[in-house]
């Protein structure tokens, strides 16, 4: 409400103009109707939408958690796979070594079986002296064995493999004046002879099925014989040599 202020004595000023009114723009004319106002969602629909968003968030969280667990599991499985691959490589090396050892063992067993079936035995390895042409060294060739004749001497020696009959003939030659021992024992019949040699090495097989052989050593002068004679058990399936005559 406006209140008029009474003029003051001596005040020649004009009265104040009326207060300004607020500007009101003219009304505009729209050629399109205004959209109707949005109706508010019913409470049940709003609740359903809220539940759907909540479910989506929960599903997203669960999915991300599951992916994280899968990633951790994948890393764990990769480490386990690498460890298993390393263990497999070690086992393969051990298997290869075991197979090599097995082959070696099989070969050794085969050799031992062969050795057990055909043992080799040394029967004469002590040096002995022949004092001259009337002396000799005599050895038997055992039956069912392969005879490995091996010897050296300090001078010329003569070696012969004789049958018992040939040996008897050589003794008869000496007794009958046919010659000295060094001559008669090698010239009254022999299966095999090595005359005036300083070494001999030979395998004799006729005794594998016959017990009728001897070996004799003689020399024209004094010598020392260094034998290295051995035999291998090797029985023949049938009689051999003069035993089959």
Please provide a written account of the structure:
- The protein has 245 residues and is of the alpha+beta class.
- It folds into 2 domains: 48-117; 121-244, Jelly Rolls (Sandwich), CATH 2.60.120.
- The chain has helices at residues 43-117, 164-175, 181-184; strands spanning 120-124, 128-130, 137-140, 145-163, 192-204, 213-218, 223-227, 229-233.
- Strands 1, 2, 3, 4, 5, 6, 7 and 8 form an 8-stranded antiparallel sheet that branches.
- It is rod-shaped.
- The N and C termini lie far apart (173 Å).
- Residues 8-13 have low confidence and may be disordered.
Write the layout of secondary structure elements.
Elements: H1 43-117, E1 120-124, E2 128-130, E3 137-140, E4 145-163, H2 164-175, H3 181-184, E5 192-204, E6 213-218, E7 223-227, E8 229-233
Antiparallel strand pairs: 1-8, 2-7, 3-6, 4-5, 4-6, 4-7, 4-8
């Amino acid at each position: 409400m406006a209140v008029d202020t009474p003029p003051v004595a001596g005040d020649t000023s004009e009265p104040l103009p009326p207060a300004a009114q607020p500007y009101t723009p003219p009304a505009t004319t729209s050629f399109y109707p205004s959209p109707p106002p949005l109706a508010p969602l019913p409470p049940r629909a709003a609740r359903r939408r809220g539940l759907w968003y909540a479910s989506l968030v929960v599903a997203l969280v669960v999915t991300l958690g599951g992916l994280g667990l899968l990633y951790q599991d994948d890393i764990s499985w990769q480490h386990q796979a690498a460890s298993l691959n390393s263990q497999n490589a070690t086992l393969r090396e051990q298997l290869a070594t075991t197979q090599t050892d097995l082959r070696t063992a099989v070969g050794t067993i085969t050799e031992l079986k062969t050795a057990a079936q055909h043992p080799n035995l040394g029967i004469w390895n002590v040096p002995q002296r022949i004092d001259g042409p009337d002396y000799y060294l005599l050895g038997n060739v055992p039956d069912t064995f392969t005879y490995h004749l091996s010897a050296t001497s300090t001078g010329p020696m003569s070696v012969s493999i004789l049958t018992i009959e040939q040996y008897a003939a050589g003794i008869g030659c000496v007794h009958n004046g046919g010659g000295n021992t060094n001559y008669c024992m090698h010239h009254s019949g022999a299966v095999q002879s090595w005359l005036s040699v300083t070494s001999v090495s030979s395998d004799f097989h006729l005794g594998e099925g016959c017990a009728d052989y001897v070996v004799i050593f003689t020399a024209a002068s004094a010598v020392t014989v260094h034998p290295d004679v051995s035999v291998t058990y090797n029985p023949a399936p049938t009689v051999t040599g003069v035993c089959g005559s």
